[in-house]
Amino acid sequence: GSKDACQGDSGGPHATKFQGTWYLTGIVSWGEGCAAEGHFGVYTRVSRYIEWLHRLMNTNTTLRGLLRAPLP
Description:
InterPro entries: Peptidase_S1_coag_factors (IPR050442), Peptidase_S1_PA (IPR009003), Peptidase_S1_PA_chymotrypsin (IPR043504), Trypsin_dom (IPR001254), TRYPSIN_SER (IPR033116). This protein is α+β, with helices and mostly antiparallel strands.
């Protein structure tokens, strides 16, 4: 097998090391099997949400408010 997320990993990070620095590049969503040949894991592309994340982080928002924040 290869490397991929498995059952129970949903919501976890997909990190990529670039020039010695680790970056959050994805969030585990779902997949079929665990690194099974011919099956792929599905991840949220964090870069699509950068502006939205910056807006949320620059406000005085509680956790409850973050969970109810409208998606981009």
